[in-house]
């Protein structure tokens, strides 16, 4: 390909709205917005009859604000050339650590956890934002260290790089989000090109650490990094009948809700589990149960299909990216999405532990919504700017593919 | 390319490697989604029905709406048992959270022992979706209003409207009406109570029990949707209850009133005559043409109201104490007594039918009767001299009947007993009440089977002699005597006595009418029957008759028979049977005063009192009656 062939694509030609719009991945955007719309409809269904809200649309209104903010972030981020984030790596990383540290200090405590920083306008759940910052920082780190793929030292550095923010989230405590970081690390290392021996080493290390935390430390040394209720929530789905806390109740009510929807569901706003409050947290963590109950197998499958479309586009963007950096960012977003969708939906179906992870785009919660829309913005950025990377690439040695020859 | 040394082992990934790694990731994603979809299919398509039932079970509450129980009327439409609205406190086990907090407080509010609530709860927990009644009749103030105000502190505690029995006349026809109570757990297994749940009210005694299925009606249901906190949200379905049918009894409330009073007066009369142990008695008044019970009472009785809402422990203790004289016991149909002289007409009938004697046969009564060395005394020490059957009945001559007994002994087989059993002795009369006693007509076989010693297993002449005056091992109930006497009064028909006349619906339409039922017939030659009747007629009309004193001045001809039963070490039991008008009997009355002394002076005035009421004759009976038998 020569410069002359696609002269108008040169970045030096300046920003053009038309080119930007034609380079946007519209399928990704439409699928994303469909998920958000689906979610808002379900939030309305789940909350319109709540007794302690000022208007039936209170939660939907809040979510709409999140959507507006999120769309703004999406557009802004997609306009930014993702390769700039390499240079911002240090600030992104330490900013993230500082934000999480601040949360532990000044965060508002709710239900025994410090996860929110209250601002005059809205409360920010910093761990949500932290996921993206970790993806960006790690993508930059790994892209820069592409030559060091065989080095165990670099690998351990990368692990430690993620471990710090993950630990800060873990002690909030927010075990679910901490696990998202682990998934992000694993997926990005895989895509980056970790050696299989190293992967096996890390995997073994993770198992060992889990064993230590869950069994050896509490039983032998009386050191409880995880509180008993956390362990119970994690394991209750394996043995619901042995539960003494409310976790099994949540689980069984969720299963009843989903399964009683049968093939076509009980109808919009007609879910009895939802409207009679048998289903806890029905607009947040258990929103999928509402979908299952009111729209049945059909509606659940359509929702999963929308997620598959989003993931398909994300994979497409990841593999089409001309730079490893772009591929890694897209992979990080894929990791977050895949992990959260599977764990959240699996939780409502009783095959995954109850971790308090929201369903991306669908669950109520502005922080989560803004962050996921921003993540879609990142994917769009990779999509748009990969095409121009040939000409304006600033990265050293991270280009790959035939074009790099 | 050849100039560059290749380091294959540590070569940076090329494009195909990234693509492969992404492919691995994509495959993982597809597998994870497949797992979710498979799980959805398993839950929603394969197990959907089961989970739907679960969802319905926890959101739908079905409460029963009690059907009002049928009303019980007397034969003139006077209500004897009615309903009143009441409130009951119950517990719905599935909504009961932290029972160890709630139960002690509830016990305090209801003023009942905590253990009792736990017991009831334990029994009711088999069906967590059904309310277990803890206290049936709870006052609106302050208990119910307190519970309603503090309903949040009493999760699972329900207040329900219910119907409670009410007895306008309190202690009236106690044993006939019977009472209702919570169905027992054993009864729930029975076919007739199959549709009921724990806490349902069913008849426990009297017509309430016998006609329970008619009176009960069918409870309705109200299905409500509730939220997770158990608050009702909307009505799903309501099925109205079907009220129970009403009963019209054969009782005449005014006659019943007098009959109950007359027994009490009889006891007082016994006290005046020095029989101070007298404390109980029974009376049966029936229509000898139809078998309808016009009045029937057993004393002591008690106020049926004490059962409403569950009987208090100390009330129950008082009623069952030895001083209480068994008020729950219906002496009219369950009390077993020696019949004594009241039995003589039936002995006479058996003798006449089997040609042991004819009515002109004369025996001499020197004051006693002898077989070998054994001697039986007549109640009149100097004897009645020569008497025929009519005179023997009139003066209740024991010796005359001793002769008959002795002659029966000489005959082959239980001819005597067969003749007596034809009148219905030795078996339940078949009245529509519970627990009627069968009584006993002793015979050879019975003695052989039940005798404790060789001596006692032997049927001896004395057994027939004693039986001939209604003593020995003979046991009868007042009702049996009334039914047997009615056969003499009506010409031989042994009728099934009835307490219920009609079953009617709420608008008064008759659903079922009970008709006169015959159990058997005693075939007596008219001349023989007439001789017995004449003897009975003379009892009250001839100055020598044993009932003459009691019926002196009574304007209507009465036939009757006195009896004084011996039951050592007790004082004698006073009997009287009478029917009137003697020529065309409409009413027959049998009365017994336990340990009351003489039939002539204690029991006969009781019967006269009832006949007075029946015929509205208001003939003041003699205050003092000369003792004969």
Question: Explain this structure to me?
Answer:
The complex is a heterodimer of chains A (about 400) and B (about 625). By secondary structure, chain A is an all-alpha fold. Chain A folds into two domains: about 35-195 and about 225-390, no CATH class; about 195-225. Chain A is built from 15 helices and three strands. Chain A has helices at about 15-25, 25-45, 60-80, 85, 90-105, 125-145, 150-170, 175-190, 195-220, 230-235, 245-260, 270-275, 285-320, 325-350, 365-390, and strands at about 110, 115-120, 125. Chain A has a three-stranded antiparallel sheet with strand order 1-2-3. Residues about 1-15 and about 390-405 of chain A have low confidence and may be disordered. With about 625 residues, chain B is α+β, with helices and mostly antiparallel strands. Chain B folds into two domains: about 60-85 and about 160-230 and about 240-250, Penicillin-binding protein 2a (Domain 2); about 255-320 and about 330-615, 3-Layer(aba) Sandwich (Beta-lactamase). In chain B, strands 2, 3, 4, 5, 10, 18 and 19 form a seven-stranded mixed sheet that branches. In chain B, strands 12-11-23-22-21 form a five-stranded antiparallel sheet, sandwiched between helices. Chain B has a three-stranded antiparallel sheet with strand order 1-8-9. Residues about 1-15 of chain B have low confidence and may be disordered. Chains A and B meet through helix 8, helix 11, helix 12, helix 13 and helix 14 of A and helix 1 and helix 2 of B.
């Amino acid at each position: 390909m020569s410069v002359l062939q696609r002269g108008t694509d040169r970045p030096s030609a300046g920003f053009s709205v038309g080119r930007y719009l034609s380079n946007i991945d519209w399928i990704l955007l439409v699928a994303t917005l469909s998920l958000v719309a689906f979610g808002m409809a379900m939030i309305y269904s789940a909350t319109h009859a709540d007794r302690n809200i000022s208007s039936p649309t209170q939660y939907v209104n809040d979510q709409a604000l999140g959507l507006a903010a999120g769309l703004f972030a999406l557009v802004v981020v997609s306009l930014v050339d993702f390769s700039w984030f390499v240079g911002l790596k240090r600030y992104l990383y330490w900013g993230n650590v500082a934000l999480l540290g601040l949360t532990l200090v000044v965060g508002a405590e709710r239900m025994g956890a410090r996860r929110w920083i209250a601002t005059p306008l809205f409360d920010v759940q910093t761990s949500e934002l932290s996921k993206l910052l970790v993806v960006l920082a790690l993508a930059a780190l790994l892209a820069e260290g592409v030559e060091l793929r065989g080095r165990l030292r670099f690998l351990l550095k990368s692990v430690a790089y993620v471990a710090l923010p993950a630990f800060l989230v873990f002690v909030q405590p927010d075990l679910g989000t901490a696990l998202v970081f682990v998934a992000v690390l694993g997926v990005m290392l895989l895509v980056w090109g970790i050696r299989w021996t190293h992967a096996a080493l890390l995997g073994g290390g993770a198992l060992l650490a889990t064993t230590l935390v869950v069994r050896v430390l509490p039983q032998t040394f009386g050191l409880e990094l995880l509180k008993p209720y956390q362990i119970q929530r994690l394991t209750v789905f394996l043995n619901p009948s042995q539960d003494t806390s409310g976790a099994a109740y949540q689980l069984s009510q969720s299963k009843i809700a989903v399964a009683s929807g049968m093939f076509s569901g009980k109808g919009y706003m007609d879910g009895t589990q939802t409207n009679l409050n048998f289903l806890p947290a029905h607009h947040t963590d258990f929103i999928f149960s509402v979908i299952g109950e009111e729209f049945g197998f059909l509606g659940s499958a359509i929702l999963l299909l929308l997620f598959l479309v989003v993931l398909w586009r994300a994979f497409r963007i990841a593999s089409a990216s001309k730079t490893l950096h772009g591929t890694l960012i897209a992979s990080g977003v894929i990791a977050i999405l895949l992990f959260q969708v599977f764990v959240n939906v699996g939780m409502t179906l009783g095959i995954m532990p109850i971790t308090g992870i929201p369903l991306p785009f669908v669950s109520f919660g502005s922080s989560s919504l803004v962050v996921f829309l921003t993540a879609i913005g990142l994917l769009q950025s990779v999509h748009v700017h990969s095409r121009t990377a040939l000409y304006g690439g600033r990265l050293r040695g991270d280009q790959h593919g035939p074009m790099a020859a | 390319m050849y100039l560059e040394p290749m380091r294959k082992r540590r070569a940076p990934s090329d494009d195909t490697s990234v693509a492969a790694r992404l492919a691995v990731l994509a495959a993982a994603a597809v597998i994870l989604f497949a797992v979710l979809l498979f799980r959805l299919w398993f839950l929603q398509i394969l197990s959907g029905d089961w989970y739907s039932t679960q969802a319905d079970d926890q959101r739908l509450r079905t409460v029963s709406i009690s059907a009002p129980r049928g009303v019980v009327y007397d034969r003139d439409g006077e209500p004897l048992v009615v309903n009143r609205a009441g409130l009951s406190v119950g517990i719905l086990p599935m909504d009961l959270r932290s029972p160890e907090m709630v139960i002690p407080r509830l016990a305090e509010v209801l003023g009942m022992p905590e253990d009792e609530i736990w017991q009831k709860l334990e029994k009711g927990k088999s069906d967590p979706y059904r309310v277990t009644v803890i206290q049936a009749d709870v006052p609106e103030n302050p208990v119910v209003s307190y519970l309603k105000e503090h309903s949040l502190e009493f999760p699972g505690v329900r207040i329900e409207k219910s119907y409670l029995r009410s007895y306008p006349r309190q202690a009236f026809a106690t044993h006939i009406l019977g009472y209702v109570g919570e169905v027992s757990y054993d009864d729930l297994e029975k076919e007739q109570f199959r549709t009921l749940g724990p806490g349902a009210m069913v008849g426990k005694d009297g017509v309430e029990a016998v006609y329970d299925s008619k009176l009960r009606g069918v409870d309705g249901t109200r299905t409500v949707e509730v939220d997770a906190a158990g608050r009702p949200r909307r009505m799903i379905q309501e099925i109205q209850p079907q009220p129970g049918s009403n009963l019209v009894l054969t009782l005449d409330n005014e006659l019943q009133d007098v009959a109950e009073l007359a027994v009490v007066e009889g006891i007082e009369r016994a006290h005046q005559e020095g029989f101070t142990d007298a404390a109980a008695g029974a009376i049966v008044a029936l229509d000898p043409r139809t078998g309808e019970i016009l009045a029937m009472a057993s004393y002591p009785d008690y106020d049926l109201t004490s059962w409403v809402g569950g009987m208090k422990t100390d009330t129950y203790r008082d009623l069952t104490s030895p001083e209480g004289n068994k008020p729950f016991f219906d002496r009219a149909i369950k009390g077993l007594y020696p019949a004594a002289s009241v039995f003589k007409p039936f002995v006479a009938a058996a003798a006449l039918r089997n040609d042991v004697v004819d009515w002109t046969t004369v025996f001499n009564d020197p004051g006693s009767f002898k077989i070998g060395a054994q001697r039986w005394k007549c109640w009149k020490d100097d004897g009645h001299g020569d008497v025929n059957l009519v005179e023997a009945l009139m003066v209740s001559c024991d010796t005359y009947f001793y002769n008959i007994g002795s002659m029966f002994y000489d005959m082959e087989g239980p001819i005597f007993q067969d003749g007596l059993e034809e009148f219905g002795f030795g078996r339940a009369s078949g009245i529509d009440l519970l627990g009627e006693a069968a009584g006993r007509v002793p015979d050879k076989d019975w003695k052989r089977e039940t005798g404790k010693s060789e001596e006692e297993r032997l049927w001896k002449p004395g057994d027939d002699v004693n039986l001939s005056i209604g003593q020995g091992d003979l046991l009868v109930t007042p009702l049996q005597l009334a039914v047997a006497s009615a056969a003499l009064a009506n010409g031989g028909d042994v009728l099934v006595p009835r307490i219920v006349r009609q079953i009617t619906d709420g608008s008064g339409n008759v659903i079922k009418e009970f008709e006169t039922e015959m159990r058997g017939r005693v075939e007596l030659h008219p001349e023989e029957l007439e001789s017995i009747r004449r003897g009975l007629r003379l009892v009250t009309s001839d100055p020598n008759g044993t009932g003459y004193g009691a019926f002196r001045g009574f304007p209507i001809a009465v036939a009757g028979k006195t009896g004084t039963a011996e039951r050592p070490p007790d004082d004698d039991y006073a009997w009287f049977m009478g029917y009137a008008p003697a020529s065309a009997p409409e009413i027959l009355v049998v009365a017994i005063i336990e340990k009351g002394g003489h039939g002539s002076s204690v029991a006969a005035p009781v019967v006269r009192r009832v006949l007075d009421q029946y015929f509205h004759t208001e003939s003041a009976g003699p205050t003092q009656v000369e003792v004969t038998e």
